[in-house]
Amino acid sequence: MASVRLAAGAAGLFGAGTVTNLPSVVAWAERPHTAGMAPTHPSGGSAARRPLEAVVFDLDGVLIEGEEVWDAVRQGLVRAQGGHWVPGATAAMMGMSSPEWSRYMAEELGVPMAPAAIIAETVAGVAARYEEALPLVPGAVGVVRELAQHWPLGLASSANRPIIELVLDRAGLTGCFRATVSSEEVARGKPAPDVYLEVARRLGVAADRCAAVEDSANGLRSAAAAGMWVVAVPNRRYPPPPELVQAADLVIATVRELTPAAIGGLRRG
């Protein structure tokens, strides 16, 4: 009976259909944590037995303050097309791939457009705003450049490919990332692990030897389901549930705290 209750708890924590190694993730989710410490990892064994070989970043909320831009563009499109914005729409779409959020906007928010047209209109609106002013997270560029000197870096983002390339180019970070993946390029968006697993595959590194840096609830679920070390930088405007933050392997208040020493501590256990 206890194992049934634990399994149900993990399914609720990480989202149905996303947990790839349920027994170990149950233990990971329920263990005690302290911010800044790196405890035993869900894939089994101590972190000291698995050297850290790569670091994978999320984009929106970690490197750029993009969620507000996406939110404003989507809300504008919904209202312009006579749809109806609902209070939970922003949280519902965080982490979704473009095929997923465009269907949500058509079916749940009443936008009378084909999903492909919704995607095109939204991406164009976001790109136009980023061309005017790129909302980089303070310190993010320096952190990426410093970590790139120590580990190969990947990017696992729900943003569309043109947006990823635009942001990295304008920030001068394109050369820092060895692999970038948009969730539109995999079967499922976050909280499913697909985008993180694909980044690890392109990096040529086992997922359980990667650390993922995330800010949102669905992003944290996605990284954990992929079996990666999870570094939480909780989103201040859309904070993830406390239990997801507490379950992370490392919790930092701002991306500036993501130093080589902090990341390196994960492999020491």
How would you describe this structure to a colleague?
The chain is of the alpha/beta class and 269 residues long. It has 2 domains: 10-64 and 137-268, HAD superfamily/HAD-like (Rossmann fold); 67-132, DNA polymerase, domain 1 (Orthogonal Bundle), CATH 1.10.150. It contains 12 helices and 6 strands. The chain has helices at residues 2-14, 22-30, 67-80, 89-93, 98-107, 115-132, 140-147, 161-171, 194-203, 217-225, 242-246, 260-268, and strands spanning 54-57, 153-157, 177-182, 210-214, 229-232, 250-251. It has a 6-stranded parallel β-sheet with strand order 3-2-1-4-5-6, sandwiched between helices. Strand 4 (210-214), helix 10 and strand 5 (229-232) form a beta-alpha-beta unit. The model is unreliable at 1-48 (pLDDT under 50).
Give a quick summary of the entry.
The chain is α/β, with parallel strands linked by helices.
How is the topology of this model organized?
Layout: H1 2-14, H2 22-30, E1 54-57, H3 67-80, H4 89-93, H5 98-107, H6 115-132, H7 140-147, E2 153-157, H8 161-171, E3 177-182, H9 194-203, E4 210-214, H10 217-225, E5 229-232, H11 242-246, E6 250-251, H12 260-268
Parallel strand pairs: 1-2, 1-4, 2-3, 4-5, 5-6
Helix pairs in contact: 1-2, 3-6, 5-6, 6-8
Output the helix-strand order: HHEHHHHHEHEHEHEHEH
What distance separates the N and C termini? 32 Å
CATH level-3 fold name of the largest domain = Rossmann fold
Radius of gyration: 18 Å
| CATH architecture name of the largest domain | 3-Layer(aba) Sandwich
Can you tell me the CATH class of the largest domain? Alpha Beta
Overall strand count = 6
Helix content: 40-55%
Q: Spans with pLDDT under 50 lasting ≥5 residues? A: 1-48
Helical/strand content category: alpha/beta
With strands numbered from the N-terminus, the spatial order across the biggest sheet is 3-2-1-4-5-6
Strand content: 5-15%
Instruction: Supply the number of helical segments.
Output: 12
Number of domains: 2
Largest sheet: 6 strands, parallel
| Mean pLDDT figure | 85
Shape: globular
> What is the CATH H-level superfamily of the largest domain?
HAD superfamily/HAD-like
